[in-house]
Design goal:
The protein is α/β, with parallel strands linked by helices. The protein has five helices and ten strands, in the order αββαβαββββαβαββ. α2 (32-45) crosses α3.
Length: 190
């Protein structure tokens, strides 16, 4: 998606450790026009799939997940990273390691928000090692539903997540695929 690539080039900051900082428009401050366009693009790419709901993980995936769900006309549900005292009902859970935060979270979704027999689109802001997407897929499978695909805003394809999702058999649609961050610069896959 050219609009996203240009935003990454103009505002993205490459940090040591193969980290791309996009907090000025995607995961701290949000550019609503760009995020809505990303949701529309994901809906276009998955127009041939049956999708009953969109699933993401808090917090950075919520904006793009909402935009995709809105464009698809389906509900959005997000996995919580910590259990609150209000979560007294049965929930699906999975352990997910965060590449940028270097912590493992026990993500969870209440069972009533992830019904069985549905086709679920997983959406997230970044794909690095694939832990979040695979953890969300695990929740979908626990619910006896199927994964329609995985939609990603920024895919760091030089890290193992891209190949892990493809090898697991998931359809992957990424709006910006980064080949490398060598030399402190963003190099996109064409």
């Amino acid at each position: 998606m050219e609009q996203l690539k240009q935003k990454i080039l103009s505002e993205g900051i490459v940090l040591p450790g193969n980290v791309l900082k996009v907090d000025s428009f995607l995961n701290h401050q949000i550019d609503p026009v760009l995020v809505m366009a990303m949701g529309e693009e994901l809906a276009r790419r998955f127009a041939d799939a049956v999708i009953d709901r969109v699933l993401t993980v808090e917090a950075s995936g919520i904006a793009i997940g909402l935009a995709a769900a809105y464009a698809l006309g389906v509900p959005l549900v997000f996995a919580k990273k910590s259990k609150s005292v209000l979560m007294t009902e049965d929930a699906y859970t999975a352990a997910v390691y965060s590449y940028t935060k270097k912590v493992t979270n026990q993500i969870s979704v209440l069972k009533r928000f992830l019904p069985s027999g549905e086709s679920v689109l997983i959406v997230d802001d970044f794909l690095a090692n694939g832990e979040a997407s695979l953890g969300l897929a695990e929740l979908v499978h626990q619910a006896s539903s199927s994964v329609a695909g995985v939609g990603i805003a920024v895919d760091k394809a030089f890290q193992p997540g891209h190949d892990r999702l493809l090898h697991a058999g998931y359809r992957l649609e990424s709006l910006a695929v980064i080949e490398s961050l060598d030399g402190g610069r963003v190099h996109f896959r064409e």
